[in-house]
Amino acid sequence: QVELVESGGGLVPAGGSLRLSCAASGRTFSPSFMGWFRQAPGKERESVARIGWNFGNTYYADSVKGRFTISADRAKNVVSLQMNSLKPEDTAVYYCVASRESGINPDYWGQGTQVTVSS
To answer: Block means of pLDDT (10 residues each) for the chain, length 119 residues?
Structure first.
């Protein structure tokens, strides 16, 4: 089984920055991808960013392009999300996700970390 543990959430003023990290543990960990979802109150959960584990190809939601950067440290099984120029609409619970080896959808979810951006 794979466990994902997030860290780095918090409260930040609009225009500020935060960095989220997610450490994966498990006997064998070789996902197809890792990434981040978020869910704001009263809204659907949405994909924010993902990174291909073998080739490092990245995907970003249009709403965060140019502001967020996802990166991976494969040696440590850690994925990070650098969030700059934060907006109040970025306020949400952010979840780290990982797929299985050939997965195309998330198979594992972290417990979530709150990000609050004040206006």
So the answer is: 94 98 89 96 96 95 98 95 98 96 90 97
